[in-house]
C-alpha cells in the first residue's frame, strides 16, 4: 500500500517544517524507510535543539531554528508541513508548490475509501461517532488525523478494503490538492484569525475538503451556516444538504424534533442520548447521512448514536460536588460553542470564560450573556476583561479573576446547589495553557480539590 508513497519520497531533498506531534511522526516514518537520506527539521522555537537532544545521534540531520527556520526553504524538493505552522505574512511564491503534508500524501498515494470531516466545531465528536458506527456494523475502519492520531503512525495498517475516517483541520486542508471520497463540512465560524491572512482564506481552506472530489465522490454540507452560504460554493449534484429547519428540498431536515430523509422519519431527537443540545443533533444528522450513503443498518446506527458518550473536554460531566454539577467544556474556543453549551445544559448558574485574544468580535456574545439568567459570570484574562467591561452587573455576580484557580474558588462559593457550573471559555488557551486539554485537566483537578487557596 505504501510503495507509491515511498517512491515519491525516495531520493528527494526533504524539509520537515514544524516538529510537534505530526512533525515527530513524519521524522520517524521517513527514518524507518530512509535511515540515511539528508533531512532538515525546521522549527521556529529557539529552544528546539535543546529539547530534542536525542536527534543529535542522527548524523544526516540538520536543524533550522529560530529566525532561520525558513532558511533555504525554496531549495528543497518536498516541504512536509505540520498543520500548526502558519505562513501568515510570509511570501510563499518561491516554494508553495513544494508544500505538502501527511494528509495530502495519504489521499494521493494510499488506495482506500476515505471519509473526511472538518468544521470549526464538532469535528472530533462527528469523526469518532462515524468510526464507532462503522466498527459496530463490522466494517474495517480506522480513525486518524487531527483528533490526535498522526496518519503516518498507522499508515502501514491501512488496507484497500478499509474505510479510513480522518478528522481534518483547516490548517491541514489549507494547501491540499486531493479530497476524500465522502467530505463533510459541519460548519464555519470566525476562528483562527491569528493563522490566516483573512477570514476568507480560512473559509477557502475549509472548502478544500470538497474542491478536488471526483464525480462519484459525495459531499455533505450544512445549508444553515451563514458563512458557508456567503461563500456560495457550487456543490456537486449528488451532495447531501443538512438543515435544522423544515425544508424537504434538502437531503436531511428536522421537522417537529424528528429527522427526515426523503419524507421518511429516520431519527427522533427526543430519544435518550448522551450528546445533548441542538449542535450535537446537527452533528448526528451528518452521521445519519453517512449511514444512508454507505447503506448501513439504520437501527444499529441509531443505537450507536444514542449510546455514544461525550468526548473529554466537550461538555464533559466532571461530577457533583456539594450539590453542584460541574462540566468541563474547555474545547469551546469560540462564542458559538459556549452559547451551544449554555443552551444544552440549561441549568447553568455559574460560567467561567475567557482566554487568549485572537481578534474575534465579542459584541454579540456579550449581548447574549446580558440576556441570560446566569447569575455568576467569572472572567479570565484576556478576553474575559473585554467581556467583564461589557456585561450588565445588576442582579448578578460578574467577577474578573487572574487565573483558573481563583475562578474555581469563586465558583465553589457562589454556585447554587442543584445547579450547574461550567468551564466554557469562548476563547483558546494559548499563552495560559499548552492547549484546551491541559486547561480542561486543570479545571477538573481544581473542582475535585477540597480546598483552593
Characterization of this structure:
This protein is α/β, with parallel strands linked by helices. It is 33% helix and 20% strand. α3 (48-51) links the parallel β2 and β3 (61-65). The radius of gyration is 23 Å and the shape is globular. The termini are far apart.
Neighbour order of strands in the largest sheet: 7-8-6-9-10-11-12-13-14
Our measurement of the CA-to-CA distance between the termini, rounded to an integer number of angstroms, reads 57 Å
Please outline the major beta sheet: 9 strands, mixed
- The oligomeric state of the chains shown is single chain
Structural class: alpha/beta
Number of strands: 20
Uncertain residue ranges = none
Helical content stands at 25-40%
Q: Number of helical runs?
A: 16
Let me know the average pLDDT: 93
Short note summarizing the structure:
This protein is α/β, with parallel strands linked by helices and 453 residues long. It contains 16 helices and 20 strands. The mean pLDDT is 93.
Write the layout of secondary structure elements.
Blueprint: H1 3-9, E1 14-17, H2 21-33, E2 39-43, H3 48-51, E3 61-65, E4 78-81, E5 99-100, H4 102-109, E6 113-118, H5 123-136, E7 141-145, H6 151-154, E8 163-167, H7 170-173, E9 182-185, H8 199-211, E10 218-222, H9 226-231, E11 240-243, E12 252-255, E13 258-261, E14 264-268, H10 278-293, H11 298-307, E15 316-321, E16 324-328, H12 335-345, E17 348-353, H13 363-370, E18 376-379, H14 383-390, E19 397-400, H15 404-414, E20 420-423, H16 436-448
Parallel strand pairs: 1-2, 1-4, 2-3, 4-5, 6-8, 6-9, 7-8, 9-10, 10-11, 11-12, 16-20, 17-18, 17-20, 18-19
Antiparallel strand pairs: 12-13, 13-14, 15-16
Amino acid at each position: 500500500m505504501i510503495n507509491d508513497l515511498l517512491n515519491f519520497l525516495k531520493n528527494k531533498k526533504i524539509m520537515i517544517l514544524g516538529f510537534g506531534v505530526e512533525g515527530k511522526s513524519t521524522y520517524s516514518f521517513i527514518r524507518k524507510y530512509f535511515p540515511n537520506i539528508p533531512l532538515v527539521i525546521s522549527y521556529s522555537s529557539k529552544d528546539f535543539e535543546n529539547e530534542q537532544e536525542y536527534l543529535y545521534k542522527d548524523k544526516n540531520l540538520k536543524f533550522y531554528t529560530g529566525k532561520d527556520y525558513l532558511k533555504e526553504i525554496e531549495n528543497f524538493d518536498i516541504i512536509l508541513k505540520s498543520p500548526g505552522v502558519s505562513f501568515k505574512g510570509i511570501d510563499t511564491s518561491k516554494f508553495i508548490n513544494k508544500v505538502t503534508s501527511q494528509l495530502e500524501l495519504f489521499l494521493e498515494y494510499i488506495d482506500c475509501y476515505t471519509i473526511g470531516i472538518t468544521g470549526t466545531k464538532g469535528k472530533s465528536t462527528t469523526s469518532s461517532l462515524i468510526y464507532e458506527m462503522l466498527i459496530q456494523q463490522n466494517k474495517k475502519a480506522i480513525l486518524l488525523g487531527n483528533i490526535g492520531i498522526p496518519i503516518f503512525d498507522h499508515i502501514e495498517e491501512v488496507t484497500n478494503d478499509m474505510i479510513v475516517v480522518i478528522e481534518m483541520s483547516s490548517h491541514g486542508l489549507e494547501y491540499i490538492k486531493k479530497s476524500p471520497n465522502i467530505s463533510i463540512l459541519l460548519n464555519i465560524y470566525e476562528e483562527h484569525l491569528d493563522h490566516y491572512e483573512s477570514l476568507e482564506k480560512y473559509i477557502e481552506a475549509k472548502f478544500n475538503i470538497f474542491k478536488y472530489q471526483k464525480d462519484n465522490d459525495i459531499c455533505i454540507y450544512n445549508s444553515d451556516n451563514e458563512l458557508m452560504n456567503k461563500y456560495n460554493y457550487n456543490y456537486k449534484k449528488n451532495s447531501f444538504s443538512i438543515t435544522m429547519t423544515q425544508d424537504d428540498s434538502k437531503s436531511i431536515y428536522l421537522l417537529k424534533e424528528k429527522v427526515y430523509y426523503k419524507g421518511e422519519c429516520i431519527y427522533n431527537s427526543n430519544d435518550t442520548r448522551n450528546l445533548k443540545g441542538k449542535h450535537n443533533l446537527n452533528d448526528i444528522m451528518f452521521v445519519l447521512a453517512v449511514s444512508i450513503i454507505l447503506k448501513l443498518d439504520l437501527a444499529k446506527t441509531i443505537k450507536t448514536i444514542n449510546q455514544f458518550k461525550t468526548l473529554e473536554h466537550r461538555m464533559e460531566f466532571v461530577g457533583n460536588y456539594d450539590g453542584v454539577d460541574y462540566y468541563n467544556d474547555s474545547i469551546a474556543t469560540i462564542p458559538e460553542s459556549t452559547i451551544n453549551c449554555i443552551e444544552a445544559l440549561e441549568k447553568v448558574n455559574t460560567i467561567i470564560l475567557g482566554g487568549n485574544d485572537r481578534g474575534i468580535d465579542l459584541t454579540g456574545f456579550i449581548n447574549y450573556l446580558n440576556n441570560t439568567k446566569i447569575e455568576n459570570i467569572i472572567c479570565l484574562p484576556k478576553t474575559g476583561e473585554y467581556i467583564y467591561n461589557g456585561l450588565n452587573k445588576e442582579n448578578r455576580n460578574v467577577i474578573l479573576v487572574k487565573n483558573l484557580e481563583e475562578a474555581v474558588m469563586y465558583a465553589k462559593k457562589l454556585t447554587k446547589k442543584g445547579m450547574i457550573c461550567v468551564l466554557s471559555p469562548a476563547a483558546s488557551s494559548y499563552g495560559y495553557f499548552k492547549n484546551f486539554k491541559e486547561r480542561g485537566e486543570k479545571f477538573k483537578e481544581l473542582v475535585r480539590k477540597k480546598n483552593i487557596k
